[in-house]
Specification:
heterodimer, A: 401 residues, mainly beta, 4-stranded antiparallel sheet, 2 helices, 34 strands, disordered N terminus, B: 312 residues, alpha/beta, 4-stranded parallel sheet, binds zinc ion
């Protein structure tokens, strides 16, 4: 019927099933993985039953990263200098004319990737690069290896400690170039190294590098002056600079998301604006002003033309990325001021099937919003301070084997 | 939830409201083609009565194309969308859905006798790679008789939504069809000169099934029907054994695929690289396959020169 590309795209099958009379054994499963801000745990929620099914202990409060396939969730524990891996328990297999879903209990994989101050995690072409700020190096793993409980494929040479980032494919690694005068400052650019560690070409300048995202085959880094746009398709990575348009007010992007299903990027731009970026267009930047300061945002992998932005007044806004306009909003939580410490617990978003999940750390719940109607769809009580959240799942067929 | 893709088969087109006759005479028909080869057909039929855009441009790979918000706007503004069908354009559904377009989406392979995907390609896709076209090989334009059906379908589609332009479309298509007929004969003549035992070649992805079927060649491909699926090592190993056994004369790169795989196969089998074939995208205007006709001539003559250099 169609391909199942990832867990989230798997939801397409639900729709297709309506057009396809003889789809026996159709199954849908969605799970939310939610870490706590103060406690070292990761809760797992069955979204359909709306209940907690598992709690995993970590060594420090974790930031969560889900792999593109949704099979693996990485718990990045900066406080414990450790990244651990969880098998989400939901996997898909494409059989061409249909996709199979397998649902098992989530489990810790026993994979521990240790290193000083793990920070950004970036997946590209099946390889997951974890940057360790305290060592200025990246450790690279493949999802397949992680699922076999083997962790690191390779690592880059140690460098000067800095808050950096790396992106790897099977041949090259793009890695941030630190500011040698001041390692507390953000990186100054990106360099490309091959598998032997040899540098290819010079440093691609990117002052105040912070924030990266992929969408399809394009990878972007945000800099003080604009974007670095990289494509890893060819025999060597191609890197181009895309300066911010002169018409934009002063500001920059420091956090970016890549569109899923449509190729675009969404970045913050100052505290109360976001910018839609389409690197291949003649006018690549579209600024959208928010009613309040931004707390978090997420792209919708199923309804490709929408992204969601949460603001400090506790409202969830829907952004039509084609029109470049907010087209609806809903109050979900109480207010969360951005004035206090940057690392205070504030809501985070994840899109799961037709629900948008919003953590509400002040009340210890995960609020659910219906993505189609933008109305409240219940909440799940977890206690503690639910913080980082990722969703995995989709629909597929099951066989009685 | 997503709605069903509004793919309109040609029979259904007549029921769609034609453009207002007055508007049609002044305003050009806004035509969107999914990729460059279809755009070339549309240009020949539509001439200056249409404004034409191609979503995937020259040398672009429709298999892995990522649509952009700008494409959604393009589709939203279209009067008609021309696509290949046979599940070739994997990106189409989300694009149509996101655009909310009411424009007819016309599958040009309607009326083509589709070839089954090869079992080999099927098994490979089954081994965990996620890109799949479906049960039929979508690369139907690689046989010129099918291209003539595409053109006929375009005429029908344009006439349905722009009746005042119908005569023009029919006249344009008739001239182009004559060119295609000559092209078809030329390719048959070219291939006929190659001794049958030499007619085995390697390409990067399995895009030439219709060419092979129509003109009598055997193509072996490590990558399967889609460029998106990486060939497993075991498949490559068996392909290499087959190449040695069948004494394959040449391997060919493609404009849309990474050359390294083909280079490796050439190196390991001692076969030579015969050049670059154009499968799913035209070249840029200054290249050897700027139009469909040029592409087919280029492919046929490149193959002939590589595997039978002594044959005129
Ligand atoms: Zn193809």
């Amino acid at each position: 019927m169609t391909r199942v590309q990832t867990g989230t795209i798997g939801v397409l099958l639900t729709t297709l099933a309506l057009n396809c009379a003889a789809l026996a054994g159709e199954k849908t499963a969605w799970r939310l993985f939610v870490s706590d801000h103060s406690e070292p745990i990761v809760n797992v929620i069955d979204l359909l039953k709306q209940e907690k099914i598992e709690t995993f202990a970590t060594k420090a409060p974790a930031r969560l990263y889900r792999s593109k396939t949704g099979r693996t969730v990485l718990a990045v524990q900066r406080g414990a200098d450790l990244v651990t891996a969880i098998d989400s328990g939901i996997s898909f297999e494409d059989h061409g004319d249909h996709g199979d879903i397998k649902v098992k209990a989530p489990r810790l994989l026993g994979v521990e990737i240790a290193g000083k101050q793990p920070s950004h995690v970036v997946e590209y072409g099946g390889e997951i690069a974890i940057f360790f700020d305290g060592e200025g190096r990246a450790r690279i793993a493949s999802e397949r290896m992680i699922l076999e409980s083997k962790s690191v494929l390779r690592e880059t040479a140690p460098g000067m400690p800095h808050h950096g980032v790396a992106v790897a494919n099977d041949r090259y690694t793009l890695i941030s170039e630190p500011n040698v005068k001041n390692s507390d400052a953000l990186p100054i650019g990106i360099k490309i190294v091959d598998k032997s560690g040899a540098q290819i070409g010079g440093v691609h300048s990117c002052p105040d590098l912070h924030g990266e995202a992929t969408s399809g085959n394009i990878l972007v880094f945000s800099c003080a002056t604009g974007l670095l746009v990289a494509s890893m398709d060819g025999s060597t990575p191609q890197v181009k600079r895309l300066p911010y348009a002169a018409a934009l007010p002063s500001g920059k992007t420091t956090t970016m998301l890549g569109g899923r299903g449509l190729q675009y990027f969404l970045g913050n731009y100052g505290s109360d604006k976001v910018v839609l970026m389409e690197p291949t267009e003649a006018e690549p930047f579209r600024l959208v002003t928010l009613p309040m300061r931004r707390v978090d945002f997420a792209v919708d992998p199923v309804r490709a033309k929408f992204a969601y932005i949460f603001t400090e007044d506790g409202r969830l806004h829907r952004l039509d990325v084609v029109a470049g306009k907010l087209d609806g909003s809903l109050r979900v939580t109480g207010p969360y001021s951005m004035d206090d410490h940057w690392n205070d617990p504030r809501p985070r978003l994840a899109v799961a099937a037709d629900k948008i999940a919003v953590t509400d750390p002040a009340r210890g719940v995960v609020a659910l919003v219906d993505a189609t109607s933008l109305t409240k769809a219940g909440e799940i009580s977890l206690g503690g301070r639910p913080f980082n959240i990722v969703a995995v799942g989709g629909s597929g067929q099951t066989h009685d084997d | 939830m997503l709605k069903t893709l509004r793919t309109v088969v040609l029979a259904g087109l007549v029921s769609l409201s034609p453009l207002a006759a007055g508007a049609a005479s002044t305003k050009k028909l806004n035509v969107v083609a999914s990729f460059s080869i279809i755009a070339d057909f549309a240009r020949h039929v539509g001439g200056d009565r249409i404004d034409l855009r191609s979503l995937v441009g020259a040398n672009g790979d429709p298999h892995v194309y990522e649509p952009r918000p700008a494409d959604v706007r393009t589709i939203a503004a279209a009067d008609i969308v021309l696509v290949n069908g046979l599940r070739f354009e994997g990106f189409l559904r989300r694009l149509i859905e996101a655009s909310g377009t009411k424009a007819p989406v016309v599958e040009l392979t309607k009326g083509v006798r589709p070839l089954k995907s090869t079992e080999q390609a099927h098994d490979r896709e089954r081994s965990g790679h996620h890109h799949h076209h479906g049960d039929y090989d979508p690369h139907a334009w690689q046989a010129v008789p099918n291209a003539r059906i595409y053109v006929k379908n375009i005429v029908d589609a344009f006439c349905s939504i722009d009746p005042p332009g119908c005569t023009t479309y029919e006249t344009n298509a008739k001239a182009y069809d004559a060119t295609l007929s000559v092209l078809d004969d030329e390719i048959r003549t070219t291939i006929a000169r190659i001794p049958p035992h030499k007619r085995v070649v390697i390409t990067a992805h399995d895009a030439f099934g219709y060419f092979a079927h129509e003109y009598g060649l055997t193509f072996l491909a490590p990558e399967g029907l889609s460029t998106d699926a990486e060939a497993p090592a075991s498949d490559i190993a068996s392909l290499i054994r087959q190449i040695k056994r069948d004494k394959v004369a040449a391997v060919f790169g493609e404009n849309i695929t990474d050359p390294r795989l083909v280079q490796r196969i050439a190196a390991e089998t001692g076969s030579k690289i015969g050049g670059e074939l154009y499968s799913d995208a035209l070249s840029r205007p200054d290249g050897p396959a700027a139009t469909y006709v040029d592409m087919m001539k280029h492919n046929a003559s490149t193959i002939r020169k590589a595997i039978a250099p002594d044959v005129p």
